[in-house]
Design brief:
The chain contains 1 helix and 48 strands. The protein has a 6-stranded antiparallel β-sheet, with no helix packed on it. A 6-stranded antiparallel β-sheet has the order 41-40-42-47-44-45, with no helix packed on it. A hairpin with a 4-residue loop joins strand 30 and strand 31. The two termini are 33 Å apart. By secondary structure, the protein is mainly beta.
């Protein structure tokens, strides 16, 4: 430990405080933490490298915010070349191969002791060591100069600013800074392949590296040397963002232009029309950033029709330059609020200015859009990028939003494409490789080939087999929704057959595919009892705000939530659940009659053979006030089940029965009969949920019957369609969740959030 600010420290709040640290190790890690989910707004950690004459260079800015999913572990390196070190120099001439590693005939000096030149040319070079390229992704170079500069790395030109044409003693310069100071540029370890760079040059190498810098004055009269430079290696372990010190402006956007870059989950930009818009970021002190990806995050409280699916990103280096299009983004997909999407693109030029243009939803009929955060990254193009892979075979289910199919090792890939086309309703995100959507029809098994391009160059392919079926009959669909933390490699899950973890493992996942985001897994399983187990290998638990929720019926009925606190290594939590659906939205065949019935119509012994059989959506309109509906089912092992969780759709009033016993009533008077209308009209898009405690409701081994009577709405008529559908799923835990069935909830005044949020089973 080099330095620590512990929990419950005594530093004063709401003000800056400074510590000076002498760091004598090549690499050091900076880790943020908190006892809450987020530091207060405008709370930041800054790390500066100190330079001569009171100058400083910011090398890290960050804050703890789990809601936004900020990076909380940063890898930082001490300079490989620090300020005021000795450099080889040559003044007033441009020898052949001046940028090579040969220093014969060159002299050495340091800042403040270099002699004057005889003309506008000053040449400097120095070596530095890289122990392994596996540890490095690029360079951050801080150069003290005023006019023109060219940087060579291992004999290859890596960057220039202001120098026109080939370097010579008569070179011309079109750049002039008012202030003499250190100016920063970031450079990749290797060029990216583009339409103009077909054979990318590698700038860095293991072992000794030579950096050569030419300083070119604007005229021959400027001969004094003010040169110095600092070189720091970028880490290979994570992409680096340096959008820390900047000014920002916007047009056609509501919200402060700096909001998307403030690392705070509550900040946003938005707009409510499809008009043109733009957001321009200018880095301070003419810093030049090489970037290879852009990240966008939709707002945590926005709805799906407000997510940005398209925008353009541009770069340039001065107000007089034309904008260069870096990436045109269209068809971006998301699955949940607060989700981040990373888009890679080829680029070899550092820029001082970046412009986002024309954020939009992609839907001209729904123009409201929100953005929570934006970021720009320098990625590791030196790395040996592993091939992406998908699960070889997957079955998805008609009319049910599929669990996203997320490729392993999809970072640092771009331009995903697939052949042949996916089934209707299913899409491949070209930027992430995620496959998502809702299939609209059944489909037999088909083989698909997916291709993507590495940011380091070269295409990779993988194949999948995909079919679309219906999960019904003797099968039930259970969906697990995960909210992952920042350490997905520590987290895993298994699905077991039966009660407990001694049964057969049906499906394991050794690590989560995403960090600080939601993702879903669907299980279409034979009717029965199963156990889902989550685990944390490190033993520190899943971070605050993380967990999983078991859901059924299109994710609309949430049955259980589980979080994981710190414990022994590894730690486990588990949930036992059932996939036995005695009736199911859309697919169940119901027995229906729309005339008077005997009082025993809802009992097991009643003979409904003369009743009509309908899917719920096909139940016809009727002149009768009440429609009677039954579904028989068979129970085996009654004692294994504790509760029946029911979700029902209706437009008037409804009463529900298990084996003739009234178990629920909505929107009907206490003394209702066959001629009773509902108390009020009910919104048919709002389902009612209830939970039948089986031990007190007459459940029995063998044959049972669940029944509904649907009453016409108060203002309805005989021509109105009978609105009805229902799902039931058995719960098997001793204590079953019922908090999702309340009709209203009240509380004293709150400073933040809602009481309803506490009851929605959302981690």
């Amino acid at each position: 430990m080099i330095f620590e600010v512990p929990v419950n420290h005594t530093h004063p709040g709401s003000q800056d405080w400074i510590h000076c640290i002498d760091i004598d190790v090549d690499r050091f890690d900076v880790v943020f933490n908190s006892t809450t989910s987020s530091w207060k707004k405008n709370s930041y950690f800054y790390l500066y490298a100190m330079l001569p004459d009171g100058e400083e260079e910011m090398v890290l800015k960050g804050r703890y915010d789990t809601y936004q999913g900020n990076v909380h572990h940063h890898y930082v390196r001490r300079p490989s070349i620090n300020h005021s070190e000795q450099w080889y120099y040559k003044m007033g001439e441009v020898p052949n191969n001046w940028f090579g590693d040969d220093t014969s005939g060159w002299s050495q000096a340091a800042r403040g002791s270099f002699p004057t030149s005889t003309n506008r040319i000053q040449l400097y070079k120095k070596t530095f060591n890289i122990a392994s390229l596996n540890e490095v992704s690029g360079l951050i170079v801080s150069i003290r100069y005023r006019y023109g500069v060219i940087v060579y790395l291992n004999g290859n030109e890596a960057w220039r600013n202001g120098v026109i044409g080939d370097l010579s003693t008569s070179s011309t310069v079109d750049n002039s800074y008012t202030d003499l100071k250190y100016y920063v540029v970031t450079l990749p370890g290797k060029q990216m392949q583009t339409s103009t760079v077909t054979s990318p040059v590698t700038f860095l190498q293991s072992g000794s590296n030579t950096i050569a810098i030419a300083i070119v004055a604007i005229t021959d009269s400027y001969t004094t040397s003010y040169f110095d430079a600092v070189v720091r290696l970028m880490s290979s372990e994570q992409s680096e963002s340096h959008i820390w010190e900047f000014t920002a402006s916007s047009t056609g956007i509501t919200g402060t232009a700096t909001n998307p870059f403030d690392m705070y989950y509550g900040s946003t930009i938005y707009y409510s029309s499809c008009a043109a818009n733009s957001l321009t970021v200018t880095l301070s002190n003419n810093r030049r950033e090489w970037i290879s990806s852009v990240q966008i995050q939709n707002y945590y409280s926005s709805s799906s029709n407000q997510w940005v699916t398209e925008f353009n990103l541009y770069g340039r280096n001065s107000d007089t330059d034309e904008w260069t299009l870096l990436k045109e983004v269209t068809g971006l997909t998301y699955s949940t609020p607060a989700q981040k999407r990373r888009i890679y693109f080829p680029n070899n030029t550092p820029y001082n200015q970046f412009k986002f243009e024309n954020f939009g939803t992609g839907d001209s009929s729904s123009c409201d859009w929100y953005v929570q955060s934006l970021d720009l990254f320098a990625d590791n193009v030196l790395a040996d990028i592993p091939n992406f892979t998908y699960d070889s075979s997957i079955t998805i289910f008609k009319d049910i939003e599929m669990s996203e199919m997320i490729p392993q090792n999809n970072d640092h890939y771009m331009n995903f494409r697939i052949n042949p086309s996916l089934p209707a309703g299913i899409v491949l995100d070209p930027y992430t490789g995620w496959i998502s959507g809702t299939a609209t029809s059944e489909s037999t098994t088909q083989t698909y080939t997916i291709t993507a391009t590495k940011i380091s160059g070269g295409d990779v392919t993988d194949t999948i087999s995909l079919s679309v079926s219906i999960c019904t009959g003797d099968k039930g669909l259970m969906t697990v929704r995960f909210r992952t933390d920042f350490y997905p490699k520590e987290n895993s899950w298994k699905l077991y057959e039966g009660r407990g973890t001694s049964g057969t493992v049906l499906q394991p996942v050794s690590s989560f595919p995403v960090s600080s985001a939601y993702y879903y897994v669907d299980f279409c399983l034979n009717n029965g009892i199963y156990t889902f187990e989550g685990a944390d290998s490190y033993g520190d638990g899943w971070q605050t705000g993380s967990g999983y929720t078991l859901t059924v019926d299109y994710g609309e009925m949430e049955l259980d939530i589980m979080t994981m606190n710190s414990g022994t290594k590894p730690i486990y939590v588990s949930t036992v659940f059932s996939t036995y659906f005695p009736f199911q939205i859309e697919y169940t065949d119901w027995k229906v009659i729309q005339s008077d019935v005997s009082s025993d119509w809802n009992t097991v012994s009643f003979d409904d053979s003369t009743w009509n059989t309908y899917k719920a959506v096909d139940i016809p309109s009727t002149s009768s006030i009440t429609t009677y509906i039954r579904k028989s089912f068979t129970m085996s092992g009654v004692n294994d089940y504790q509760v029946l969780n029911v979700r029902v759709k209706y437009s008037g009033g409804v009463a529900a029965y298990l084996n003739g016993n009234l178990v629920a009533r909505f929107n009907l008077e206490d003394d209702f009969d066959s001629l009773s209308l509902s108390i009020t009209d009910h919104d048919s898009n709002v389902f009612s949920k209830f939970h039948v405690i089986l031990s007190t409701s007459g459940i029995q081994e063998g044959t049972n019957v669940f029944s509904f009577e649907i009453h016409r709405g108060l203002s309805g008529s005989s021509s109105d369609a009978v609105v009805f559908d229902a799902t039931g799923v058995f719960g098997v835990e001793d204590c079953s969740t019922v908090v999702d069935s309340y009709s209203s909830v009240e509380s004293t005044k709150l400073d933040y959030g809602t009481i309803a949020d506490m009851m929605d089973l959302d981690p």
